[in-house]
Amino acid sequence: MDADTFQMLRDTVRRFVNERLIPAEDRVEEEDEVPAEIVDEMREMGLFGLSIPEEFGGLGLTMSEEIRIMFELGRTASAFRSVFGTNVGIGSQGILIDGTEEQKAHWLPRLASGEISSSFALTEPEAGSDAGSVRTTAIREGDNYRLNGTKRYITNAPRAGIFTVMARTDPDTPGAKGVSAFIVPADTPGLTVGKVDKKMGQKGTKTCDVMFDDALVPAANIIGAEPGRGFKTAMKVLDRGRINIAASACGMADRLVEESVTYAAQRKQFGQEIGTFQLVQGMIADSRTEAYAAWCMARDIARRFDEGERAAGDVAATKYFATEALGRIADRAVQVHGGAGYMREYKVERFYRDVRLLRIYEGTSQIQQTIIAKSLLREAGLKV
Ligand code: COS
What we know:
By secondary structure, the protein is α+β, with helices and mostly antiparallel strands. The chain has three domains: 3-113, Butyryl-Coa Dehydrogenase, subunit A, domain 1 (Orthogonal Bundle); 118-227, Butyryl-CoA Dehydrogenase, subunit A, domain 2 (Beta Barrel), CATH 2.40.110.10; 232-379, Butyryl-CoA Dehydrogenase, subunit A, domain 3. The chain contains eleven helices and nine strands. The chain has helices at residues 3-31, 36-45, 63-74, 78-88, 93-98, 101-113, 230-266, 278-306, 312-337, 348-354, 365-379, and strands spanning 117-121, 137-141, 144-155, 160-168, 179-185, 191-193, 207-218, 268-269, 272-273. The strands form three sheets. It has a four-stranded antiparallel sheet, with no helix packed on it. Coenzyme a persulfide (COS) binds next to helix 7 and helix 11. Coenzyme a persulfide is lined by residues 90, 120, 122-123, 129-132, 176, 231-232, 235-236, 238-239, 312, 361-363, 367, 371.
């Protein structure tokens, strides 16, 4: 995309966030649902296809461009970007990165247009951080595989038209090597979705269990048409997803700093604006510093990604720092607002709950720490 066209897209998204999404935040919080007309507008803007190449009907943004769009969308409630987020990230990237040409041609245009939504089904009741220990089985029967098992906390599962499902095709091979990634249409007999989970925050986003009970899936639906590569596909998808999350975190941080500054500039105590007090200034300064540092990391890692570098350790460092910093920034934003910060009426209370998930999903902070450290220690020859 040339620079002018991208600038136009970014401006359009910024206007959409300011004029349509931010004013609808309270409604989403109340109704726990993103209004259908807003989802239609997102489809028209091409948001479902941000990362999907133009040949498959998407906008084909680079990672550096995508993070700038995610930054804008980070400035509002998580529910909005969650609607199309899986199509941009974990729900499409497995097919895009490792899929066959037929798989790409069949599914990507429908994901890019938003005709269908997608979900990434890795986590299970007994397999979270230990992603290589999935127990869902996929047993070969002629031209099909028979899937049995349960997936947990699956984002967008109630809306999904297809799932990328990590299942064990080789029960005799424990760990990562026995896992394959399948494209499973939501209408596959034997696939059911559970009740929508009740969460701490992020109202309007939808997660639930997905159950496979003798679900027959064609062998041709294995991503890349080769069994045993699913774990690596999942790791590649998550590496990219973590950059996207870091960028969203930066957008959220930006909004929280802005809310803090606006409040500190008008709220008076002791006869003067609280922003004149150095202890309040200290909180604002710390938040801006961390927000800026996180954004510099996100831009750097996105640029390196676009140059073809696959630096899982620094991706993890970026997600780790951006989301942990965001937690501190949200906490300070509530503090700057004082009693008002605890009230629903002021938006920082909602952010405070919403941001908590970013330190957990697509790999906890502790998993990011292990990825960072192991990538360095392995280079030094240590077997970890
Ligand atoms: N890209 C490509 N390949 C990767 C990779 C990456 N980022 N990370 C690991 N691999 C490969 C390794 O090279 C290794 O391949 P070989 O066996 O051929 O050498 C294989 O995958 C297994 O790697 P490793 O031994 O490092 O895997 P572990 O079981 O130790 O797991 C962690 C590594 C913990 C990093 C992984 O399980 C993980 O990311 N867990 C968190 C999962 C998560 O984010 N869940 C959130 C829910 S999904 S929204």
